[in-house]
Amino acid sequence: MRPPQTGFGYHFEDLSVGMSETLMRTVMADDVVGFAKLSGDNNPVHLSDHFAARTPFRERIAHGLYTASLISAVLGTRLPGPGAIYVSQTINFRAPVRIGDVVVARVEVAELDPQKRRARLNCECSVDAKTVLDGEAVVLVPSRAG
C-alpha cells in the first residue's frame, strides 16, 4: 500500500482502520556508530565488542531508540506519510537487536479521531518474526481540506 500521488502521503480522509505499512532494514555496524554520534549515546554496549562480550547480550546491540526510529520512518514516509506530526509514542523494548539483524517495522491504523484528525497506530518491530519492540503512536494527519 503506497500513499496516493499527492506528494504529501495520506490525508486523514484516506485512512481507515486496519491499513498497515512496513519497512525492512538490516542493522549495520556503521548505523550503530552513526546513531551514537548523532544521539550522543556512547554506551559501550553499542560500540565496544570487548565490553559487550561481558554483558548478558555477549555482543554489541543496537540502540533501542535506533530501532524505534524505524517506526518514525514508517510514519513519516509511508503511513500516514509526509505531513504527519507525532503527538505521542509508547515503546516497550522486548528483546535486543543485534548488528546484522533484519528489522521489520510495522504500523497499523488502530483508531481514527475525525474531530481532532488524529490517528492511533499500533507499532511493532520484529526480527525473525519475534517482537523486539512494540507500542503505539498517535499522529496528527493533514486533512484534504487544508
TrEMBL record:
Keyword Lyase: yes
Any one GO molecular-function label of the UniProt entry: (3R)-hydroxyacyl-[acyl-carrier-protein] dehydratase activity
Record-annotated MaoC-like domain positions: 24-114
InterPro entries in UniProt: Fatty_acid_synthase, HotDog_dom_sf, MaoC-like_dom, UPF0336/Enoyl-CoA_hydratase
Gene Ontology BP terms: fatty acid biosynthetic process
This protein's UniProt keywords: Lyase
Highest taxon above the source species: Bacteria
UniProt GO cellular component terms: fatty acid synthase complex
Record-linked PANTHER family: HYDROXYACYL-THIOESTER DEHYDRATASE TYPE 2, MITOCHONDRIAL, HYDROXYACYL-THIOESTER DEHYDRATASE TYPE 2, MITOCHONDRIAL-RELATED
The protein's name: 3-hydroxybutyryl-CoA dehydratase
